[in-house]
Amino acid sequence: MLVRGEVVREVPPEIARFSVTVAARDKNRPAALSRLAERSEAVRALVDGYGDAIDRRETGDLWVRPELKRSGEKVTGYAGSATTIVTVTDFGILGELMLRLADQDQTTVAGPWWELRPNSPVHREARQAAVAEAITRAREYADALGAEVTALLHLSDAGLTAQQPMMMTRAAHTMGYRAAGGAPPELELDPQVQTVQATIEAGFAISPPRLASE
């Protein structure tokens, strides 16, 4: 007997990621590079100020390029940007942090992306529930035949996925806010539910069916 065990769970996210990109532009190359370094360091200092609420801070894309006239190779200036990926575990500070970063000069904030950790116990629990579901189905089928499940012949993992809402996989929310003065406004973010699905296929041996005849 071959049966499938499938379980779908909706669970709260465990981490949130967002990106911070700072840009700089100047006719003078050293000035552009210096400005880019200063703005990048300001991002690092602001993020690090949140201590244990931050899971990690990682450098993403970094680029610097000369800007040319429409024709020819004459350099008119230099532009660059640096991106930092921030992973947050304390969702209570997430909105505040993102707005404070968006309040910096020439800074773009994108996200958040809500996720589960790769080693989250939710994945293990879903797999175990899928196995239990397969055993339950096998016993129900055997009972309908007047038989009993006697042995497990094979078990295969058809996959486990953590699905995010489509709106978050297509594009990120971006912020380019700049306050007119004072502290940035408060922003409360609602964590997006994560869908975890586990599927297994199992083959069972059953005793000879006791089929009733009428």
UniProtKB/TrEMBL annotation:
Transmembrane segments: none annotated. This is SIMPL domain-containing protein. It comes from Plantactinospora mayteni. PANTHER family: PERIPLASMIC IMMUNOGENIC PROTEIN, SLR1258 PROTEIN. InterPro entries: 26kDa_periplasmic_antigen, SIMPL/DUF541. The lineage of its organism: Bacteria, Bacillati, Actinomycetota, Actinomycetes, Micromonosporales. Gene3D superfamilies: Protein of unknown function (DUF541), domain 1, Protein of unknown function (DUF541), domain 2. It holds the Pfam family SIMPL.
